[in-house]
Amino acid sequence: MPNAETPRGGRERLLRRMLERHAIELSARKQDLRSLYTESADVVEDTESIILREARGLGAAVAAISSRTVQRLENSLKRLRAGTYGRCSDCDAPIGTARLRALPFADACRDCQERRDQARGVLPILA
């Protein structure tokens, strides 16, 4: 995983592999979602049509998450090429090694990410 000691080429290969894997996954999710929307539901809401509607909603949510992950990986590669990868985009402090191992596409240090999350009303996972 990327960290301060990982050579740039290693980080780039890792990010590219992750991007490729997530892009393939996103494409598959979009295809699944398209197939769910081509299935027609009768006017009467029976159990099957309710399940189909729920599957569509879940599929759209998962596709949105996958899409954001692909975007974050693409942005990480841009930051790597610009020489700003591993630095917080808010305060310019180094992003911790453990954080980059867990989230190679992180663009903020832990403190700045917590501030972002609080501003959006996201509850912290750990107290």
Spell out the key features of this protein.
single chain; 0% strand; Four Helix Bundle (Hemerythrin (Met), subunit A); 127 residues; flat; disordered N terminus
How would you describe the overall organization of this protein?
- The structure is a single chain.
- This protein is mainly α.
- It has a single domain, classed as DksA, coiled-coil domain (Four Helix Bundle (Hemerythrin (Met), subunit A), Up-down Bundle), CATH 1.20.120.
- The chain has 4 helices and no strands.
- The two termini are 26 Å apart.
What is this structure's SSE topology?
Layout: H1 8-38, H2 47-82, H3 97-102, H4 110-120
Helix pairs in contact: 1-2
